[in-house]
Amino acid sequence: MKNICIACTALFFALFIYSASAQTIQGIVLDGTSTHTSVPLPGANVYWAGTTQGTITDLQGKFSLEKPVGHSSLVISFVGFQSDTVEVNTQLNLQIRLQAVATLNEVEVKSGSTFISRTESAKIETITTKELLKAACCNLSESFETNASVDVSYSDAVTGAKQVQMLGLDGTYVQINSENIPSIRGLSTTYGLSYVPGTWISSIDVGKGAGSVVNGYESIAGQINVELQKPESSEQLYLNTYLNDMGRAEINLNLAHKLNKKWSTGLLMHTSRMGDEIASKMDRNNDGFLDLPMSTQYNVVNRWKYNGTRFQSQFGVKALYDSRKGGQMNYYNPKHTEMDSVFIPNDSGHIEHGVDSGRYEMRKKLYYGTGTETKRFEAFAKTALLFPNTPYKGLGLIVSASSHDQNSFFGNNTYGGRQQTFYSNLIYQSIINNTNHQIKLGASYLLDNYNEQYRDSTFSRTESVPGVFGEYTYTIPEKFSAVVGLRSDFHNMYGTILTPRLHLKYDLTPNTAFRASAGKGFRVANPIAENTSVLISSRQLVVKGNLLPEKAWNYGVNLTHEFSLLGKNGLVGLDLYRTDFVNQIITDMDTDPNQIAFYNLEGKSFANSAQVELQYQPLKALDVKMAYKYYDVKNTINGELMRRQFVSRDRFFFNVGYATKFEKWKFDFTSQWYGSKRIPDTSTNPEAFQRESKSPAYWLFNAQVTKAFKKWDLYVGGENLGNFRQANPIVAADQPFGPNFDASLIWGPVYGRMIYAGMRFKIK
Asked: For the TonB-dependent receptor plug domain, which residue ranges apply (predicted)?
């Protein structure tokens, strides 16, 4: 497959189209919906049917195209408008008016507020703001509750950290960007999803498998790109408040202002708190530990945008402070009086008759606590040079710099880390002859400076990675497209990295699209930062050998079909993906329950994923989504090929949403079924501290009701309405400093039912 991808890359980059000499046809494409004015449509596709000859309209909607011998059918298409075919005989000047489509089915498939692009070679699912409002969506980790493609789970029983999964693989294999800038990676992996408040999000693009080479080499399982609220199109004021029965309170305030026709600015602010005064309510399973940590977060983004005719620019800064405190309840109670009998050796060390002559004293009992404090700062700038007369051409530059400081303690374990990152990406795009042949060329640079401390050990490294890339897109409009990309990066520690990517799309019928993708991914793991959950245990951390970068190939196919049943639109989709690891950092929690070992893969590691999804609108205001997913994920641990821990083989998803007239009332319900998960082996523990080898299957139910007023929204909802909880989630909870303590064996919810309410207010 590797050789095939590289060969295809070379083949497609070598394609050139021969154009026959003929008459030159000129014309203009207009918006036919505008009855009183002639509004040009810049960027419309114009091509001869049955050929690869075409062009796109300029800023005034005009085009010029040679007429080949033997062809007279001219096809005109534009996003959001009905395509048209014109027979061209002797006329040399054309005026073409396109009509806006009544629905968006010509361009994209919608279900509620999630849609799949019909024009992209890769299957990209976009989650819009309207979809996000179906749940509380306090932050990015809670933004996938009504989406079947992304799984979210807690990583441990103490810190409240959440992680995503795609294709049965951890979120570390998913490239998460913020407006095409690398965002949640490195040291921010554990808590980074909570650093993006839900009210800041404009939309989320989710893609499975190999992504574009333009965005780098790190994506293996998929990509998530988060688009934030834009200052030029957002409400002038948007206020959101939230409170739940666990005592978590949030205030979000978005401000936007257009200074003039070209300049606009936005200010996004967030604060949340789960305070000490409600700590007594947060141990619902009575194991002595807080079910969720006490936390405080302050988060702000200020951005500016300049929108000119030939030049566009946006820049801004982000700042974050996040604090989390967890552990045993009495750790945070200065008035606790529980005592322990502690043996104090004799200062002289004198031993009489084989017995130490020390003494016993009563001292205040030692309790287990955890804490993490994070300070993060980021500055970014995006600029674009435009060519009004050739809108297919553009030159863009993305630059960002960030600093991430984190200090943590987990009982007697201490961990601190600092990551300083600089990223730049220069992108040029244009066409070859016509818009059926598009190219992107560019260069990037990534600098990561890591400094980590665990207990008394220090780990430091600097990664410097310059790279170049090229991507070629070949299109037969409304029939076939291929995107072939290749990038070459030079890593100062690991040498040259070649990353080929291939995406194919073929429209079997106007309502049926088949897609295929293949590509390679490469990443350098941060084992401690990516597995802080195991630090909340008495396991000894062991690193075996020199850990190498992770490399994997991903292959996938998917089929999307639109249909109409009883006069109502629907969609059915099938996704099949496989990931083969060339190397993987194995996290071994099975060989010894008192140890966690990290080492390079010796044997096989793969992930097979299958998903079938149905979207249907049986009534005008009723949207239904359901999906079944199957995961076959295995890796070699200590010489044995085993199922990956904490991954359900089977999962079922169901979501239904209903809105009354004018959407004054909205009702949303989601249910998810999780099949059994493998739990790491604890059979060598004392019997009281052993766990089953598999978890039971379970259901989760979420619901929300929203009442809309002119400027206000009031909403109330619940999560885990069935009140399902993992029994005894912490091993040896009463002996947190003993040899068997472990809070990392989490396969289900730690706390039960949670009720919330909130308010939204906006001024447009």
From this structure: 121-222
Other beta carbons within 10 Å of 364 = 12
Residue pair 755/244 in contact (Cβ under 8 Å)? The answer is yes
* Pair of tokens at residue 284: 């619902």
Name residue 704's amino acid: Q
| Of 279 and 643, more confident | 643
- Tokens representing 577? 């993906």
Per DSSP, 684 falls in state: T
Q: DSSP characters for 169-199?
A: EEGGGEEEEETTEE-S-GGGTTTGGGGSBGG
Q: Specify the length of the chain in residues.
A: 764
DSSP letter at 332?
G
Beta 84-87 vs 73-77: how paired, if at all? antiparallel
Between CA 302 and CA 397 the distance in angstroms is 20
- Which residues neighbour 456 within 8 Å (Cβ) at sequence distance 6 or greater? none
Cβ neighbour number for residue 503 with a 10 Å cutoff: 26
Q: How far is CA 387 from CA 91, 143, 262, 737, in A?
A: 30, 37, 17, 66
Element at 10 (helix H, strand E): helix 2-13
What tokens does 316 get?
């801004």
Q: Quickly name the fold that domain 2-98 has.
A: Immunoglobulin-like (2.60.40)
Asked if residue 268 has pLDDT above 50, the reply is yes
Would you kindly state where each structural domain of the chain is located, as residue ranges?
A: 2-98, 111-328+368-763
DSSP 455: T
Give tens-digit pLDDT for 130-156: 888 888 888 998 889 888 889 888 776
Looking at the DSSP bridge assignments, the partners of residue 473 are 438, 483
Q: Residues 6 or more apart from 620 whose CB is under 8 A from it?
A: none
Query: Phi-psi region for residue 493, left (φ > 0), alpha (ψ -120 to 50) or beta?
Result: alpha
Q: Rounded to two decimals, what is the model's pTM?
A: 0.84
Give phi and psi for 727, each to the nearest 5.
-75, 135
Tell me the two tokens of residue 412: 């007697």
pLDDT band at 340 (very low <50, low <70, confident <90, very high): low
Q: Same CATH fold, 111-328+368-763 and 2-98?
A: no
- Residue 3 DSSP code: H
Q: Are 238 and 251 in contact (CB under 8 A)?
A: no
Tokens of 572: 């059915």
> Using a CB cutoff of 8 Å and minimum separation of 24, what contacts does 125-130 make?
125/149, 125/205, 125/206, 125/207, 126/203, 126/204, 126/205, 126/206, 127/203, 127/204, 127/205, 127/206, 128/202, 128/203, 129/201, 129/202, 129/203
CATH number given to 111-328+368-763 = 2.40.170.20
Q: Find residue 718's DSSP bridge partners.
A: 703, 755
Cα–Cα distance, 417 to 439 (Å, whole number): 40
Predicted pLDDT of residue 353 = 44
Residue with tokens 């179906």: 134
Question: What is the C-alpha separation between 537 and 474, in angstroms, rounded?
Answer: 53
Q: How far apart are CA 177 and CA 185, in angstroms?
A: 9
Evaluate whether 70 touches 50 at the Cβ level (below 8 Å): no
Strands 495-509 and 369-386: unpaired
| pLDDT for 13 | 42
In this structure, what is the dihedral angle of CA atoms 51, 56, 60, 63, given to the nearest 10 degrees? Answer: -30
% of the chain residues with pLDDT over 70: 87
Residue 288's SS3 state is: coil
Handedness of CA 146, 150, 153, 159 (dihedral sign): negative
